[in-house]
Amino acid sequence: MDRVAEILAEAAAEAVEPRFRALAAGEVMEKAPGEVVTVADREAELIIERRLRELLPVPVVGEEAVAADPALAQALHSEPAVWLVDPVDGTSNFIAGRPEYAVMASLVRSGQTVAAWIWQPATATCYTAELGAGAWRNGHRLTRTPLADEPAKWRGTVKSRFLDPVHRRLLETNTTAFGEITPGRHAAGVEYPDLTEGALDFILYWRTLPWDHAPGSLLVSEAGGVSARLDGSPYRPEAPGGEDGLLVAADPESWERIRGILLGC
């Protein structure tokens, strides 16, 4: 666990942090319509991939490698063990000079996330989780307090960018039952820790790319929260194009109540 945390911090120090608020012309590119990437993303992923393979020689499914060759993501279904890597989560924040970004990795065995790491360079904060062994921030055990108040006092984030118009209208109506709905921090590697530490009570995601959600989902669940599909099935990382919709909440009871309110059932 410690060595992977070191690898992420080292890659960030080598390839990411020197370019924070210092990206040169031509170092930001569009990899798909509406999706940007920087040289920091690509260089950090190469560093992390090489060093993770030295630690455990299994396939590495990185966000930027999959952008170039989508077939690589099928290793999540065909291989017994896979590394997942997001070299700069929150790239739009990074480009804009905002500190809400993270470097993330997770280890998936037989389709289940068994270990996760989130490194936030701006604050030198490392979040880790291991299946059955808990969630941690810089070596301190994290436990999420269950929600006791009424929904009118709960604070959540609803990520609506990829929602279809019907679901968007439904949620716009039903989220009025909660105390506060925020647009999010544009980085799963910041939002999941926010929920784990009590700054948020729930998050609804629609698109669920595996490198974005495997680390945080394990962090939340190991702290006592819930990360599950809208039908109640536990989150498992899937190749892009898989199931949509993921609700993350502070505890099992509040997850059920929040789902009922959001979906109107």
Characterize this entry briefly.
With 265 residues, the chain is an alpha+beta fold. Helix content is 35%, strand content 26%.
Structure description:
This protein is an alpha+beta fold and 265 residues long. The protein contains nine helices and 14 strands. Strands 3-4-5-6-7-8-9 form a seven-stranded mixed sheet, sandwiched between helices. It has a five-stranded mixed sheet with strand order 11-10-12-14-13, sandwiched between helices. A two-stranded antiparallel sheet has the order 1-2. Helix 1 runs antiparallel to helix 2 (39-55) and helix 7 packs parallel to helix 8 (210-222).
Quickly list its features.
alpha+beta, Fructose-1,6-Bisphosphatase, Chain A, domain 1, 2 domains, globular
How are the secondary structure elements laid out?
Elements: H1 2-16, E1 28-32, E2 35-38, H2 39-55, E3 60-62, H3 63-68, H4 75-78, E4 81-89, H5 91-96, E5 102-109, E6 112-120, E7 125-130, E8 134-137, E9 140-142, E10 155-158, H6 165-174, E11 180-182, H7 188-196, E12 202-205, H8 210-222, E13 226-228, E14 246-249, H9 252-263
Parallel strand pairs: 3-4, 10-11, 10-12
Antiparallel strand pairs: 1-2, 4-5, 5-6, 6-7, 7-8, 8-9, 12-14, 13-14
Helix pairs in contact: 1-2, 7-8
Looking at how many chains there are and whether they match, the oligomeric state comes to single chain
Distance between the termini: 41 Å
CATH architecture label name of the largest domain = 2-Layer Sandwich
Number of strands: 14
Q: What is the global morphology?
A: globular
Tell me the β content: 25-35%
User: Could you name the CATH class of the largest domain?
Assistant: Alpha Beta
CATH topology (level 3) name of the largest domain: Fructose-1,6-Bisphosphatase, Chain A, domain 1
Query: What count of structural domains?
Result: 2
In angstroms, what is the radius of gyration? 18 Å
Helix-strand pattern, N to C?
A: HEEHEHHEHEEEEEEHEHEHEEH
Mean of all residue-level pLDDT scores = 95
Q: Strand count, sense and closure of the main sheet?
A: 7 strands, mixed
Count the helices. How many? 9
